Predict the 3D structure of the following.
Amino acid sequence: MEDIRARATDQFIAAWKDSSSVCVNYFTWHETMGYVVVKRDDVNKRVVLSSRVPEILEEMGCVFDPASAGMHPQAYGSDDDEVQPPLSETALNTCWRPAHARFALRCQPSYLHRFAVGQLALELKECFEERRSILKSRLRPDEMLLSISQFPLLGSGTYIDGQGPADGPLLHSHLLSDQCLNQVPPFTLEINGICDRRGTVPYTAVAVFRDKETEWPFVDTNVPPLQMNFDFVVQPEMAADESEETAATRAEAATARRSSTASARSADDHSSNGSAENSQQDETDDGPNSVIARLARSPSETAATKNCLLLDSPLFGIGSGGVLRVALCAADLDEARSLYDQLAPISAILTALTAATPIVRGYLVERDSYWDVQCSTVDDRSAQELGLAPLTTAKGTQFKSRFGSIDTYLGPGPGNNDLAFQPKFNDCKYTYDNSAYWKMKDNGVDHLLSQHVAHLFTRDIHYASERMLKTAGGTSSSKGDSSLRKSDGQEHFKRFLGCNRKNVCLYPPNTRAGSGWEVELMSLEVQLTDEENAAFITFAVLLSRVIISYRLNLYLPISLMDQNMARSQKVGAVKNQLFYFRRDVFGGRDGASACSGRILRPGNGSNWRVTPSDASGDDTSTPRRHIGSKYPDTSEYIELTIDEIINGSARFKVTGILNIILTYLSTMRLEYEVEQKLRRQLLLVRRRASGKLCTLATWMRNFVQNHPDYRHDSVVLPSINYDMLRTMNDIEEGKVAAPELLG
């Protein structure tokens, strides 16, 4: 493993050096989307997952390279003078890929989209529709293609066609059949690697929604108690609004952690690993540093599993549903660092706006988004990494799952005069590999970027391909191996990247693909219709251009960003939650923020008007927390609704992200048709943020609760699931109107 780490470090250094003098002259981007194939039984009113996806991909002539599994798929660029093809051709040249689950698949364009506002407005939705029609042409009459983040009944009753017994030799799951797993070596090795590193099955507890007739206290009887190791039950529930009882448990657990790690501290100080400890909060405060408090420490302490469903396989979180990711290719590393830092705080807002998973394992749950559940199901930290045992072999204590929110900002690069970043923003603890850090530093990589990359190396990869072992050991050359000749020289580093997925990810340039540094936005949930997906991708792409053009300052302390991520997944977060946000997004670049809530006006080079909040009387009655000043009007951060963050607030002197984007569009002198189409696309985002349109999670929850078969006990019966998925498919095909969802 150390040879692979060393090789990965060398690959990053080489990529960094090769790109230091290269500037991409045009902005490109690409998206990754995922779908789920289901099979309906109209006679018995039941919908199950289809296991035919590998067969469908084979019929489409898709060739899957197992060595590329788990790596970031990069599309190909084009020459400066090459004419950008229409997106309709992109649909025909889509790269289709299998997922970990045999009922899901991924797709992305074979080459990068050159930034063209006209294409975003006129061709993006049509491209998605063409892709979907290509897939649907391969389906059987009783199959449906859905872009959903999770099948509602996965792990409950009969959920997949040809379902075999549980407790199979591949998944070792009491809830999932091996029939669910795409039995390709990279996928099976990664799933097993997660459990092997953890030392036990990584149980995840998901709080059940309490309805009028829900059995309470709720006990999940589907997982035998004798199978459970309560030291390793992770509950991804939010700490920000917990009860006093839970808070006391967290405080006790934090005290236990301090005492358990004290004996290992001296050994850790002399190890080959470093640590960054800039936390300004106590371990009992809200935030990611209190992860140990969400663990039940013994069978007698069942707080982590009380009134919760239990998930017992990483397949519940990795590759088992649809995805929506947007990769933005920056001009150079400085631009990539800016996009990485500025998109991270806004990712929680997008998570709430795209929330689409209110049902888990056939139950309504006390959350609308699946992000933290996914992160918990693949949490492979060992007892040492969790702080439950003294450090002997682990690289250090890991305060977050390898899937989750970012641990540190990158800040501006050397020579960059942007002073918006302050070291105090990195206020959460993280560890990094000391040898990799100093190797990068000795080769000229700056401190923050070296720490960011070295942090990736504190976690083992789950498996290594034969190609990686050959090059890591130095036993083979590219001249004698065809698989190595196809390489871009970054396999080892990309493997570590693939094993560490954050809400925002940074990828080095791919010289073989012709792309620059990439920043990928990961926290969106895929939407039901192509119209919605096109709208949020358009929003993300335009936001990236606004961040660079107007040099927005969206920095939040990471501890506040983590609290935002937690709140974004609560039920009805768009309407019911407040989020920390920077009041003045235009100040601070000179190192001194006026914190005045300055609003864009015509004299500042733009034309726009503030859209007052559409909130009701709650807008004036809800107490807001101001941070950074004792005077509310000059505070640096303020708690706002998503409506106020996206659409602006005259009361709190907040511009509104969407208003800034529309200002940017007005400076581009677009054709009337293009501008109007873009405004109609962005109107969906505006109305979703204001609460006039509901999220898919809210729509699904309302459908279940208003179904005649629902007994108000939180259980989603197969007949309810059948009617819901049939209706969702009809909405996607335009057969049924959904004005509350689409307008």
About this structure: DSSP finds 25 helices and 21 strands in the chain. The two ends are 53 Å apart (CA to CA). The mean pLDDT is 80.
